[in-house]
Specification:
Elements lengths: L1 H23 L2 H4 L3 E8 L5 E12 L2 E6 L5 E4 L4 E9 L6 E8 L2 E2 L4 E4 L9 E6 L7 H13 L3 E4 L9 H6 L3 H4 L3 E4 L10 H4 L14 E5 L2 E5 L11 H15 L4 E5 L14 H17 L3 E4 L5 E4 L2 E2 L2 E2 L7 E3 L5 E5 L19 E5 L3 E7 L3 E8 L4 E8 L22 H13 L6 H4 L10 H13 L30
Parallel strand pairs: 9-10, 10-11, 13-14, 14-15, 15-20, 19-24
Antiparallel strand pairs: 1-2, 2-5, 3-4, 3-6, 6-7, 6-8, 9-22, 12-13, 16-20, 16-21, 17-18, 22-23, 23-24
Helix pairs in contact: 7-8, 9-11
Length: 490
């Protein structure tokens, strides 16, 4: 009898002990999991790299296939915590699916991504952010905006990590995005100590170079990512590489050329008089002009800025805003509102003439690119549209239609135009097209008589402004933002 009681007591003790051990085992010990990723790298037309980190060493496998086709499985080899799968032979411009598992244990749900269309063809969508790496609520809000954009890939213009914690500032905020949209980063001043080779696989990046710069084709656009943390004059090989890279892209007849880097060439924010801004403009600007770069994306200033089209340190075709048909200059964007603190406007000097928009707000930029058009939308963290413009490859560049007295350049005369002249004269309001504002006489400076002349015409039946006026055809030989050298009869 005692023996039976002893046996039953021992059994109860063992069962209880096992239950206690089971209850105190960590979830990771029970079930391995992915603790970073998965995230896509070097997603191009026929290849991609899928990276992730697991909670313990294991032999992972990846199953993938093109939408509507059969599955293939790639084994990862020896057990490890750092996993990197390179998939080759993908179909250009197609939706692909993938999932990750170890043995029969699934580690992820299924994800999808789209490969690049064939070089020089097809439509793509890009999300652009910068100066994001704070882990803030604003960064998470911007990440949500980007998810709704559903981009094919992401350009990050630098300052990925302010906190020395990539999980806090990068992998967790963008976890859902990175599994479906490849990210192509530029190096910012806060990123120079990141372990780039272990974090990112960047197309065409030469490990022998001094600096993080590379390029790639994606559909109808060619992208060159530069490293403005290197001195472009003391290390001119990066500029030599850029010129050769853009020349090769032009030779392939790719419709659009886009540059991405951290420090802006044009800014009226906190870095308006920064030496790196000035040196970068002198170094990169002439190369962008030579090869007809269409769009430059940068950050560093924590705000949103858009330039007029700029070429040779002058503004070109600003009168076309917000639709630029074959403009003779490059539009520069500063997109430094990815989630960190704002930097406000600093400069009211000479560089202000280059700037069309300046807004201190958290935001992301959506760039839709087709063979004949770039459509840019800028969306705040509160999902408000704050700017929008288009650049087209028009067969003929139109001439400006000038309405004399149209200070705000909206195509019509109103009391706001007269008020605009007065605000310009007495409060310093900038007028983008002084030639349009001049009413009484050609050339010279604006004066109060221009405002009086316009208001007399609008409200007292006085004579109309001199030609060109609404009945005038588009001006032949019209030029630039300040604004027209020649106009019919002007």
């Amino acid at each position: 009898m005692m023996r039976g009681l002893y046996s039953r007591g021992l059994s109860s003790f063992v069962i209880g002990a096992l239950a206690s051990l089971s209850a105190h085992r960590s979830p990771a010990a029970e079930r391995p999991s992915i603790i970073r990723g998965p995230y896509l790298q070097s997603l191009l037309d026929t290849s991609v790299v899928v990276m992730f980190t697991t909670s313990e060493p294991l032999a992972a496998a990846l199953t993938w296939g093109v939408e509507g086709g059969p599955d293939s499985t790639v084994a990862g080899g020896n057990p490890t915590t750092e996993h990197r799968f390179r998939l080759e032979g993908l179909a250009p411009g197609k939706i692909h699916r993938y999932s990750i598992h170890t043995g029969l244990l699934p580690l992820t749900q299924g994800f999808t991504f789209r490969t690049s269309p064939p070089t020089g063809a097809g439509g793509i969508r890009v999300a652009v952010i910068g100066d994001s790496g704070s882990g803030s609520a604003a960064q998470l809000a911007v990440a949500g905006v980007m998810e709704e954009m559903a981009p094919d890939f992401i350009l990050h213009v630098g300052d990925i990590d302010y906190e020395d914690d990539m999980d806090l500032t990068f992998f967790r905020p963008y976890q859902r995005l990175l599994a479906r949209s490849c990210i192509f980063p530029a190096q910012g001043n806060h990123d120079i100590f990141l372990p780039w080779p272990s974090l990112f696989v960047l197309p065409g990046l030469d490990p022998k170079r001094r600096g993080i710069y590379y390029s790639f084709d994606w559909g109808s656009a060619h992208f060159a990512v530069l490293d403005t943390e290197r001195d472009l004059f003391e290390e001119p090989e990066q500029l030599d590489w850029l010129a050769a890279d853009l020349e090769a892209a032009r030779a392939r007849a790719i419709p659009w050329l886009i540059l991405s880097f951290h420090r802006p060439l044009f800014t009226i924010g906190a870095y308006a008089f920064d030496e790196a801004t000035i040196r970068g403009r002198v170094a990169i600007g002439p190369i962008a002009d030579r090869y007809g770069v269409d769009l430059i994306l940068s950050g560093h200033d924590h705000n949103y800025q858009r330039s007029h089209p700029v070429r040779g340190a002058g503004v070109r075709d600003a009168w076309q805003d917000p639709r630029f048909d074959s403009p003779r200059g490059t539009v520069n964007l500063v997109t430094g509102g990815g989630g960190t603190d704002f930097l406000y406007q600093k400069s009211a000097g000479a560089d202000e003439r280059f700037t069309r928009r300046f807004i201190s707000i958290q935001h992301a930029v959506e760039v839709d690119i087709k063979v004949s058009e770039i459509h840019v939308r800028v969306v705040s963290h509160e999902k408000q549209l704050i700017d929008e413009f288009r650049i087209t490859k028009a067969p003929r560049r139109p001439g400006p239609r000038l309405v004399r007295g149209d200070v705000d350049f909206d195509g019509a005369l109103s009391i706001t135009d007269g008020i605009g002249i007065l605000l310009h004269l007495f409060q310093g309001l900038r007028i983008d097209c002084p030639e349009a504002a001049r009413i009484e006489a050609a050339g010279g400076f604006l004066s109060i008589t221009d405002a009086v002349y316009l208001l007399n015409y609008l409200f007292l039946g006085g004579p109309p402004p001199r030609a060109p006026f609404p009945e005038c055809a588009p001006a032949l030989g019209g030029d630039d933002a300040w604004c027209v050298r020649e106009a019919c009869g002007g």
